[in-house]
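Hey forum,

I'm writing up a methods section and want to include a predicted complex as supplementary material. The small molecule is flavin-adenine dinucleotide. I've pasted the protein sequence and the SMILES. Can someone with a working setup run it? I'll credit the forum in the acknowledgements.
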Amino acid sequence: MTQDTRLDLLVAGGGVAGLTAALSLHAAGFARVTVVEAAPDVQPVGAGLNLMPNAVRELDALGLLGHLEADAVRTRELRYYHAGGALVSREERGLRAGYRWPQLSVHRGHLQRVLTDAVRERLGPEALVTGVRVTDVEQPDTPGARPRVRLEHRCDDVRGTAVLEPDVLIGADGIRSAVRRALHPDEGEPPWNGVLVWRGVSRMDARHVGSFMFIAGDDRRKAVVYPMTEPSLRRPDVLVNWALAMPADRVDERFLGDWNRPVPLARLLRHYEGWEFGGVSVPEVLRAADGAYEYPMVDRDPLPRWTHGRTTLIGDAAHAMYPIGSNGATQSVIDARALAHALAVHRDPDDALAAYERERRPVTTALQRANRRLGPEVVINLAHERAPGGFTDIDEVVPPDERRAIAARYAEAGAFDRETVNRGSPYGAPVRALP
Ligand SMILES: Cc1cc2nc3c(=O)[nH]c(=O)nc-3n(C[C@H](O)[C@H](O)[C@H](O)COP(=O)(O)OP(=O)(O)OC[C@H]3O[C@@H](n4cnc5c(N)ncnc54)[C@H](O)[C@@H]3O)c2cc1C
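Reply by user p_vandermeer:
Happy to help. Structure tokens for the complex are below, copy them as they are.
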């Protein structure tokens, strides 16, 4: 039994989750999909992120792979290094690891632009309304009950408010979600784990970057570096993403969950002098940056439920996790596809929301918990704990079986192991809802 395409579907938030949801709902035949985005326009902000092959498979199903790959790198190798420079572990990734889809390193702004353009082109320009913020939601906790969504419109000098009553509200409004707050009013701010992340983007000669992604250091200092664009004859230099992490005593609570707080580069540089891995110099990467942004490492506690009446959550609004293991954007894409599929195959939207949550909440909860234990990155901490001064043979410090088991456990928790992904999309070709 399939769904009625005339359902009025409101998506709060035009980030990766919200835009992918809109495209997936449109592909499933839903004709009345609107995304409201608080920002006055969709800006290409942020730094780099990685999309795992399971998310790339879903974006391919939406016909977006070619556009994405026009400005992205197929991640072939991930290396983990001890802070002293020795290699801890090396993993093949994406196509090279036997997946049918690549893993992509991409600037968040490029991903956002590809999704935004596709939404405007396929659903029409009026489907994405910017400068409109969800301020509150009244959602009776009974099946079939529709939400009352309060919106504030802020653009230039124009101010206004409105109330909508969609058939379904999809909260895709990120880690500080207003929709989530309405469903879980006692939750408070995202908890901070005592680590500060600094990140940025550099433009550099490709020969000084390497063709791999690396994660180096330990629980005192960490660096992640990877290229996000390929060199070309026209552009021999490449865009490089970098992120550094260090524990800190305190944080300004106003900036929890804020990705855009600038900090002076000099403040970071002094902690990373002499850091070099596989021929890539971290200070050189930092010196080529046009700025640095501070992000307190926050996440959200797993929720006991996402759906109340006809309102549900996707992406960071549902399960914000530490930026470890490349799962923030990846899982948001999967949520969006899973929700659209569920809405298309169930006649009753309540059944659809329940099926979506049954499928997705256990996986993302497992990943949130795994990331609190550092996910696959735990391997560099183990190497540091067991051999703080360095080592000559990593196999004596963290044996190969143990290294493989760490990576495999994490992939299974997130259902992105090769066998599962290569079976193809569980959402298949879009099921068309009834006209
Ligand atoms: C500015 C920014 C920069 C980021 N940079 C990086 C990065 O460099 N690397 C990385 O790994 N991850 C980054 N992230 C996070 C990453 O995008 C997410 O973890 C992941 O993609 C999940 O996406 P999401 O759509 O659930 O959430 P988000 O990407 O956070 O998108 C949520 C969207 O909802 C909008 N919104 C918020 N509140 C409301 C409201 N009340 N009403 C309407 N709209 C609202 C926001 O403006 C935003 O566009 C960034 C997020 C943001 C917002």
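Some notes you might quote in the supplement: The first helix runs from residue 16 to 27. The chain is about 30% helix and 25% strand.
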